[in-house]
Design a protein that fits this description.
This protein is an alpha/beta fold and 425 residues long. The protein is built from 13 helices and 14 strands. The chain has helices at residues 17-24, 37-44, 55-58, 96-106, 125-138, 176-187, 200-231, 235-242, 264-274, 281-306, 335-343, 358-365, 389-400; strands at residues 8-11, 30-33, 64-67, 78-81, 114-117, 147-150, 169-171, 194-196, 315-319, 348-352, 369-370, 379-384, 403-411, 423-424. The radius of gyration is 23 Å and the shape is globular.
Length: 425
């Protein structure tokens, strides 16, 4: 390690911040900061509940200090903010975590310090929202006393192939000199390389359209699925046939949740509407994707009625709660939409997911869930909502064995062949 390198403080140690802090802590003095003291103690003990950093790696980071003590942040000269940027119940950007983090940094900001933001925002947010907070709290002047950069996160929770070090990093800075410093910082820890954008606004826009593009493409697949079901055609068979063409994009229908794809488009549409443009395609895609949970629940009820199984006071098992397979993240999971829609029919819903933290599920959604498969029970339907490897290994026959004779098996992620499931999205 070069002892002349500036000390970096990473603010927020979730799915984004922890892998970055772990990487930086191998090459320069790094402070991993989080306001959640329980999270700090967990990391000090060598455990990461997000499963993004292994126990061995956590215990072998030579130059890192995990802390929830704000005073220790004064030791840093570079601050990297990696807090979440959610939306509120009206799907408006909630900048509260970003503003709070900027206030925390502003209290310790010194002359010539550098603040880099990684949180997903709309173009212009860093300089329009964050910089004024830094100036107000610190009393320093932007681009004279302190500087800013933006390098959007590209973490894919649960992905063991596409990691921080293997994904090209977009970088930017508030001056040409700062842009180069930001770029050099990330080049130290990302062998895949960097792409230096011409401005912070360009880098912000590049991030927000990555997930908007995926959201719109999945919305198209979901709409096609709605059409094909009315035509009595299996959607996956259609996509497999179309996929034989070299330039057909391999998107699939499904629930669109999580902290990125289901949220980021609202940041772009918010800014678009603010400047007088009403985005049509993006918002139409959002409406389609947000309707899929109710569509699946309605299909389950129809299958139960077709089998002359009771609906009122019936029991349904939902397998999977996380927003994606083989990952413990339940943030903004759209499986909850299925559960709520079924409950509206006075159906008792039980949820089994081997990946989740049961207390977190209870706190976030008020759901009492199971980490172990239930004993054979009288479920009128079983909905495999997430494609966890444990569910694939169980197989359709064993899953059917959890339910009553004649119960419906719905395969949202199409992890089983068409002939063994009663319905696939």
């Amino acid at each position: 390690m070069n002892l002349n390198k500036k000390t970096v403080a990473v603010i927020g140690l979730g799915y984004v911040g922890l892998p970055l802090a772990a990487a930086l802590g191998k090459v320069r003095n790094t402070i991993g900061f989080d306001i959640n003291s329980a999270r700090i103690e967990e990391l000090k003990s060598g455990y990461d509940h997000t499963l993004e950093v292994s126990e061995d790696e956590l215990k072998n980071i030579p130059y890192i200090q995990f802390t929830s003590d704000r005073d220790l942040l004064k030791r840093a000269q570079i601050y990297v903010v990696t807090v979440p940027t959610p939306v509120d119940e009206a799907n408006r950007p909630d900048m509260t975590p970003l503003v709070k983090a900027s206030e925390t940094v502003g209290r310790v900001l010194k002359k010539n310090d550098l603040v880099i933001y990684e949180s997903t925002v709309y173009p212009g947010a860093t300089e329009e929202v964050c910089v004024p907070v830094l100036e107000r709290v610190s009393g320093l002047r932007f681009n004279q006393d302190f500087f800013c950069g933006y390098s959007p996160e590209r973490i894919n929770p649960g992905d063991k192939v596409h990691r921080l070090q293997t994904i090209v990093k977009v970088t930017s800075g508030s001056t040409p000199e700062i842009a180069e410093e930001v770029d050099q910082l990330y080049r130290e820890v990302i062998p895949a390389g960097t792409h230096k954008a011409s401005s912070i606004r360009v880098a912000e826009a590049a991030k927000v359209i990555e997930n908007t593009q995926r959201d719109v493409n999945i919305a198209l697949m979901n709409e096609l699925s709605l059409i094909f079901h009315r035509l009595g055609i299996d959607t996956m068979e259609v996509l497999e046939a179309s996929g034989t063409k070299w330039n057909f994009l391999p998107f699939r229908p499904g629930l669109v949740g999580g902290h990125c794809i289901g949220v980021d488009p609202y940041y772009l549409t918010h800014k678009a509407q603010e400047i007088g443009y009403h985005p049509e395609v993006i918002l139409a895609g959002r409406r389609i994707n947000d309707s899929i949970g109710s569509f699946i629940a309605d299909k389950a009820v129809k299958l139960m009625l077709q089998r002359k199984l009771p609906v009122i006071n019936a029991k349904v098992l939902v397998m999977g709660l996380t927003f994606k397979e083989d990952c413990p993240d339940v943030r903004n999971t759209k499986v909850v939409d299925i559960v709520r829609a079924l409950q509206d029919y006075n159906i008792t819903v039980e949820v089994y997911d081997p990946w989740i933290n049961l207390d977190e599920a209870k706190y976030e959604y008020g759901l009492t869930c199971m980490n172990e498969p239930p004993l054979a029970c009288d479920y009128s339907a079983v909905i495999v909502a997430v494609g966890h490897r444990q569910f694939k290994e169980m197989g359709a026959d064993r899953i059917r064995g959890l339910a009553a004779p004649g119960a419906a098996l719905l395969d949202v992620k199409s992890i089983f062949p068409r002939e063994v499931a009663d319905w696939r999205l």
